[in-house]
Amino acid sequence: MPASESPALFSRLQIHEVVGAGDGADGGVCVIRCIEGIAGVGQVFVPERDRDTVDPEVTLTLEVIERFRRSLEFVDPPHSAAVLLSGGPLEVLREGDVLVSHPMPDWYRKLEASGLRVQDFDRSPRLPDVRRAHLAFAGYEVKPTTTVGHAHPDAAAELDRRWNSLTTSARLVDEEGEFCMLVPGRGCFERGWVRIKDPVGADLPSRLLAGAGHEEFLAVSVDGRTMCAVSDEEYDKWIIVHHFDEEDRGA
After folding, report:
1. Of residues 99, 129, 86, the one with CA closest to residue 246
2. Tens digits of per-residue pLDDT, 162-220?
3. Domain boundary assignment for the chain
4. How far is CA 113 from CA 49, 65, 116, 198, 213, in A?
5. Is this structure's pTM higher than 0.85?
6. Domain 3-101 CATH (choose: 2.60.40.2550, 3.40.50.300, 3.50.50.60, 2.40.30.10)
7. Which of 90, 4, 83 is nearest to 42 (CA)?
8. Which residues are registered as beta bridge partners of 39?
9. Which of 208, 217, 191, 6 is nearest to 105 (CA)?
10. Radius of gyration over alpha carbons of the chain, in Å?
11. How confident is the model over 225-248, as pLDDT tens digits?
Protein backbone atom coordinates (compact mmCIF):
# COMPACT_ATOMS: atom_id res chain seq x y z
CA MET A 1 0.00 0.00 0.00
CA PRO A 2 1.50 3.40 -0.94
CA ALA A 3 2.36 5.74 1.91
CA SER A 4 -0.28 8.21 0.72
CA GLU A 5 -2.94 5.56 1.37
CA SER A 6 -1.73 4.82 4.89
CA PRO A 7 -4.53 4.97 7.47
CA ALA A 8 -2.37 7.13 9.74
CA LEU A 9 -0.60 10.38 8.99
CA PHE A 10 1.53 10.49 12.12
CA SER A 11 3.55 7.98 14.04
CA ARG A 12 6.46 7.90 16.47
CA LEU A 13 8.98 5.09 16.75
CA GLN A 14 11.35 4.59 19.66
CA ILE A 15 14.72 3.01 18.90
CA HIS A 16 15.48 -0.08 20.97
CA GLU A 17 18.60 -1.16 19.10
CA VAL A 18 20.51 -0.32 15.93
CA VAL A 19 21.22 -3.83 14.62
CA GLY A 20 23.21 -3.12 11.51
CA ALA A 21 23.94 -0.25 9.17
CA GLY A 22 23.76 -0.51 5.43
CA ASP A 23 26.51 0.43 3.02
CA GLY A 24 27.73 3.96 3.64
CA ALA A 25 24.91 6.27 4.67
CA ASP A 26 22.14 4.15 3.18
CA GLY A 27 20.28 3.18 6.34
CA GLY A 28 20.09 -0.25 7.88
CA VAL A 29 18.15 -2.38 10.36
CA CYS A 30 16.78 -1.26 13.72
CA VAL A 31 14.56 -2.77 16.38
CA ILE A 32 11.85 -0.24 17.21
CA ARG A 33 8.71 0.07 19.27
CA CYS A 34 5.76 2.03 17.88
CA ILE A 35 4.67 4.48 20.58
CA GLU A 36 2.10 6.58 18.66
CA GLY A 37 -0.03 6.32 15.56
CA ILE A 38 0.35 3.57 12.97
CA ALA A 39 3.69 3.35 11.18
CA GLY A 40 3.44 2.12 7.60
CA VAL A 41 5.85 1.06 4.89
CA GLY A 42 6.80 4.11 2.86
CA GLN A 43 6.54 6.63 5.67
CA VAL A 44 9.42 9.08 6.08
CA PHE A 45 10.87 9.79 9.52
CA VAL A 46 13.29 12.22 11.14
CA PRO A 47 14.79 12.18 14.63
CA GLU A 48 12.31 14.00 16.84
CA ARG A 49 14.99 16.32 18.17
CA ASP A 50 15.70 17.51 14.60
CA ARG A 51 12.20 17.83 13.18
CA ASP A 52 12.14 21.65 13.14
CA THR A 53 15.45 21.83 11.26
CA VAL A 54 15.38 18.72 9.13
CA ASP A 55 18.68 17.70 7.59
CA PRO A 56 18.00 15.74 4.37
CA GLU A 57 20.94 13.49 5.23
CA VAL A 58 19.15 12.11 8.31
CA THR A 59 15.74 11.59 6.71
CA LEU A 60 14.84 7.88 6.95
CA THR A 61 12.26 5.94 4.94
CA LEU A 62 10.56 2.88 6.40
CA GLU A 63 11.12 0.17 3.78
CA VAL A 64 10.36 -3.11 5.57
CA ILE A 65 8.58 -4.12 8.80
CA GLU A 66 9.09 -7.61 10.20
CA ARG A 67 7.68 -9.29 13.32
CA PHE A 68 8.18 -12.97 14.15
CA ARG A 69 9.73 -13.43 10.69
CA ARG A 70 6.60 -12.12 8.99
CA SER A 71 6.57 -9.06 6.76
CA LEU A 72 3.92 -6.48 7.70
CA GLU A 73 2.59 -3.32 6.09
CA PHE A 74 1.97 -1.55 9.42
CA VAL A 75 2.94 -1.62 13.09
CA ASP A 76 0.95 0.04 15.89
CA PRO A 77 1.42 0.67 19.64
CA PRO A 78 2.72 -0.89 21.77
CA HIS A 79 4.24 -3.42 19.37
CA SER A 80 7.89 -3.80 18.51
CA ALA A 81 9.36 -4.87 15.19
CA ALA A 82 12.56 -5.08 13.21
CA VAL A 83 12.54 -2.44 10.49
CA LEU A 84 14.69 -1.65 7.49
CA LEU A 85 15.29 2.07 7.12
CA SER A 86 16.78 3.64 4.01
CA GLY A 87 18.62 6.94 4.18
CA GLY A 88 20.65 7.84 7.18
CA PRO A 89 23.26 7.52 8.43
CA LEU A 90 22.07 5.39 11.33
CA GLU A 91 25.09 6.42 13.40
CA VAL A 92 23.07 9.44 14.53
CA LEU A 93 20.62 7.13 16.34
CA ARG A 94 20.94 5.81 19.89
CA GLU A 95 18.83 3.57 22.11
CA GLY A 96 15.84 5.56 23.36
CA ASP A 97 15.85 8.04 20.47
CA VAL A 98 12.46 8.75 18.91
CA LEU A 99 11.72 9.03 15.19
CA VAL A 100 8.68 11.04 14.14
CA SER A 101 6.95 10.84 10.76
CA HIS A 102 7.64 13.77 8.45
CA PRO A 103 6.49 16.22 7.22
CA MET A 104 4.01 17.58 9.75
CA PRO A 105 1.25 19.91 8.55
CA ASP A 106 0.75 23.33 10.08
CA TRP A 107 -2.34 22.34 12.06
CA TYR A 108 -0.42 19.50 13.72
CA ARG A 109 2.31 21.88 14.84
CA LYS A 110 -0.28 24.29 16.21
CA LEU A 111 -1.94 21.60 18.30
CA GLU A 112 1.45 20.59 19.68
CA ALA A 113 2.15 24.24 20.49
CA SER A 114 -1.08 24.17 22.51
CA GLY A 115 0.27 21.35 24.69
CA LEU A 116 -1.68 18.61 22.89
CA ARG A 117 -0.37 15.40 21.36
CA VAL A 118 -1.93 14.09 18.16
CA GLN A 119 -2.47 10.34 18.46
CA ASP A 120 -4.11 9.44 15.17
CA PHE A 121 -7.18 9.93 13.03
CA ASP A 122 -10.16 8.20 14.66
CA ARG A 123 -12.68 6.59 12.29
CA SER A 124 -14.61 4.74 15.02
CA PRO A 125 -18.34 4.31 14.26
CA ARG A 126 -18.98 5.31 17.88
CA LEU A 127 -18.14 8.91 17.03
CA PRO A 128 -20.89 11.21 15.73
CA ASP A 129 -21.05 12.26 12.11
CA VAL A 130 -18.86 15.37 11.85
CA ARG A 131 -21.58 17.48 10.21
CA ARG A 132 -24.17 16.50 12.83
CA ALA A 133 -21.67 17.42 15.50
CA HIS A 134 -21.08 20.77 13.86
CA LEU A 135 -24.84 21.46 13.82
CA ALA A 136 -24.93 20.71 17.55
CA PHE A 137 -22.21 23.35 17.89
CA ALA A 138 -23.28 26.01 15.36
CA GLY A 139 -26.91 25.28 14.47
CA TYR A 140 -29.55 28.02 14.58
CA GLU A 141 -31.31 26.57 17.63
CA VAL A 142 -28.15 25.84 19.68
CA LYS A 143 -28.23 27.27 23.19
CA PRO A 144 -25.13 27.73 25.36
CA THR A 145 -24.60 25.78 28.55
CA THR A 146 -22.83 28.85 29.94
CA THR A 147 -21.50 32.15 28.64
CA VAL A 148 -18.62 34.49 29.49
CA GLY A 149 -18.97 38.08 28.33
CA HIS A 150 -16.19 39.72 26.36
CA ALA A 151 -16.36 42.57 28.88
CA HIS A 152 -15.64 40.28 31.82
CA PRO A 153 -12.55 41.66 33.64
CA ASP A 154 -10.76 38.30 33.32
CA ALA A 155 -12.66 36.61 30.51
CA ALA A 156 -9.95 34.14 29.48
CA ALA A 157 -9.40 32.79 33.00
CA GLU A 158 -13.14 32.58 33.63
CA LEU A 159 -13.69 30.70 30.37
CA ASP A 160 -10.95 28.25 31.36
CA ARG A 161 -12.45 27.79 34.83
CA ARG A 162 -15.91 27.01 33.48
CA TRP A 163 -14.49 24.75 30.76
CA ASN A 164 -12.53 22.77 33.34
CA SER A 165 -15.61 22.35 35.53
CA LEU A 166 -18.09 21.47 32.77
CA THR A 167 -15.86 19.07 30.87
CA THR A 168 -14.94 17.25 34.07
CA SER A 169 -18.62 16.82 34.94
CA ALA A 170 -19.43 15.74 31.38
CA ARG A 171 -16.50 13.29 31.28
CA LEU A 172 -15.16 14.62 28.01
CA VAL A 173 -11.66 13.27 28.67
CA ASP A 174 -11.13 9.58 29.41
CA GLU A 175 -8.83 8.03 32.01
CA GLU A 176 -5.92 8.10 29.55
CA GLY A 177 -6.29 11.85 29.07
CA GLU A 178 -7.70 11.38 25.56
CA PHE A 179 -10.57 12.86 23.56
CA CYS A 180 -11.29 13.59 19.89
CA MET A 181 -11.66 16.91 18.17
CA LEU A 182 -12.29 18.55 14.85
CA VAL A 183 -9.11 20.46 14.18
CA PRO A 184 -9.99 24.18 14.06
CA GLY A 185 -9.75 25.81 10.65
CA ARG A 186 -10.35 24.90 7.03
CA GLY A 187 -10.63 21.26 6.00
CA CYS A 188 -11.94 20.02 9.34
CA PHE A 189 -14.86 18.07 7.82
CA GLU A 190 -12.66 16.31 5.28
CA ARG A 191 -10.03 15.54 7.92
CA GLY A 192 -12.59 14.19 10.38
CA TRP A 193 -12.03 13.33 14.01
CA VAL A 194 -8.50 13.41 15.35
CA ARG A 195 -7.70 11.65 18.61
CA ILE A 196 -5.84 13.86 21.04
CA LYS A 197 -3.95 13.22 24.27
CA ASP A 198 -3.83 16.14 26.69
CA PRO A 199 -0.97 15.79 29.20
CA VAL A 200 -1.80 19.21 30.71
CA GLY A 201 -5.46 18.44 31.36
CA ALA A 202 -6.74 21.98 32.06
CA ASP A 203 -7.32 25.44 30.56
CA LEU A 204 -7.73 24.20 26.98
CA PRO A 205 -9.47 27.34 25.59
CA SER A 206 -6.61 29.69 26.48
CA ARG A 207 -4.00 27.14 25.37
CA LEU A 208 -5.60 26.72 21.94
CA LEU A 209 -5.83 30.47 21.53
CA ALA A 210 -2.15 30.94 22.43
CA GLY A 211 -0.79 27.95 20.52
CA ALA A 212 -3.10 27.65 17.53
CA GLY A 213 -4.69 31.08 17.30
CA HIS A 214 -8.24 29.68 17.46
CA GLU A 215 -11.00 30.86 19.78
CA GLU A 216 -13.55 28.27 18.63
CA PHE A 217 -13.20 24.49 18.75
CA LEU A 218 -15.23 21.31 19.01
CA ALA A 219 -14.34 18.18 21.00
CA VAL A 220 -16.05 14.85 21.71
CA SER A 221 -15.39 12.02 24.13
CA VAL A 222 -13.77 8.90 22.66
CA ASP A 223 -17.01 6.96 23.23
CA GLY A 224 -18.87 9.54 21.11
CA ARG A 225 -21.45 10.31 23.79
CA THR A 226 -20.46 13.84 24.82
CA MET A 227 -19.54 16.99 22.92
CA CYS A 228 -18.01 20.08 24.49
CA ALA A 229 -17.29 23.16 22.40
CA VAL A 230 -16.39 26.83 22.60
CA SER A 231 -18.07 29.32 20.29
CA ASP A 232 -17.08 32.99 19.94
CA GLU A 233 -20.21 35.11 19.59
CA GLU A 234 -20.74 38.85 19.17
CA TYR A 235 -20.95 39.78 22.84
CA ASP A 236 -19.71 36.70 24.66
CA LYS A 237 -18.12 33.28 24.40
CA TRP A 238 -20.28 30.20 24.69
CA ILE A 239 -19.47 26.80 26.13
CA ILE A 240 -21.80 24.17 24.70
CA VAL A 241 -22.22 20.72 26.23
CA HIS A 242 -24.28 18.28 24.17
CA HIS A 243 -25.02 14.57 24.59
CA PHE A 244 -25.49 12.46 21.46
CA ASP A 245 -27.97 9.62 21.13
CA GLU A 246 -27.34 6.31 19.33
CA GLU A 247 -28.56 7.61 15.96
CA ASP A 248 -26.20 10.61 16.06
CA ARG A 249 -23.27 8.38 16.91
CA GLY A 250 -23.97 5.90 14.15
CA ALA A 251 -23.71 3.01 16.60
Report:
1. 129
2. 999 999 999 999 999 999 999 887 778 888 899 999 999 999 999 999 999 999 999 99
3. 3-101, 106-249
4. 15, 31, 7, 12, 10
5. no
6. 2.40.30.10
7. 4
8. 75
9. 191
10. 21
11. 999 999 999 999 999 999 998 766
